[in-house]
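Extended Data, panel c. Modelled sequence:
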Amino acid sequence: MKKVLVLFGGVSSEHDVSLISAKSVIENIPADKYEVTKLGITKDGRWFIYKGDTANLPGDRWLEDKSLLVRAVLSPDRSHHGVITERGSVISFDICFPVLHGRNGEDGTVQGLLALAGIPFVGCDMLASAVCMDKAMTNAVADYAGINQAKWLAFDSYAYSKDGDEIIKKSENYLGYPVFVKPANSGSSVGITKAFDTEGLKAAIKTAFEYDKKVVLEEGIDGHEVECAVMGNDEPVASTVGEIVPCNEFYDYDAKYYANKSELNIPANLPEETIQAVRDAACRAYKAFGCTGLTRIDFFVRKSDGEVMLNEPNTIPGFTSISMYPKLFEASGVPYSELLDRLLQLAEER
């Protein structure tokens, strides 16, 4: 039986979402093939092996009973191939599943540590994770690879403090309105605002800088918001395509996790040739970004002409009960538990 370490929590604005995703992952990993150890990271960066009920992960209830917690850290020493506990014992693992969304989990930091430790892990390597996490880098690579996307601009807090008015003017002339304002390194739509005028743009930039020192502005696209799940290493395969009809102005954090009123259509209500075009574009983007294991890649299908345009990749997409990645593969004939089994096998193969 293979030993799997599931990492959850993390120092990230998406800490709470990670707990919900991890609960679903742990409960659906085939128990006849894998022995799971739960390793949680608190919001302030402490690491604990958790020996309690998985049902207590959401809301950080897993931290309440100290008798179920053992301080432990992931060791970069390859002879350990696992974690060292506060008691000095070493616990080794065959594979790690980092169910960590956003900064310090999806940006290549943990992936680099796992690579040093010599532990196979689910998902993209350090470089692909970093590229896909930073929206400015993602857009730059997409432009270089000839992947169609919205017009965009990027700048940091220093540049904005020196010449903010000129940046605003450049955005208005090049991107127009509406415009999406995003922290370069954030997920689950945290810190993202849709601006419709100058004052709204300035306020949105201020909000984005609360989450990152670099901001990306993107031309607003009037299109269908669609998502495609991709899995594989050298020969990636794409799921069917799902469409999101947001309950809010756009598919923001509240619409994703709390409002529960957004409409998800699987497959998307689009012509079959458009669905296939999205799937093809997803695999092209996956390879261009250097992805392995899994990534959910989001697109717009522009309403005016049906053009497929990249929105963004997500290298550790949500794995909650309502998340699109497992739902898309389930609709493509791969049940949740089988999906997790395949992802763990892909980690070992790489």
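The chain has three domains: 2-121, 132-148+221-349, 152-219. This feature is highlighted in the accompanying rendering.
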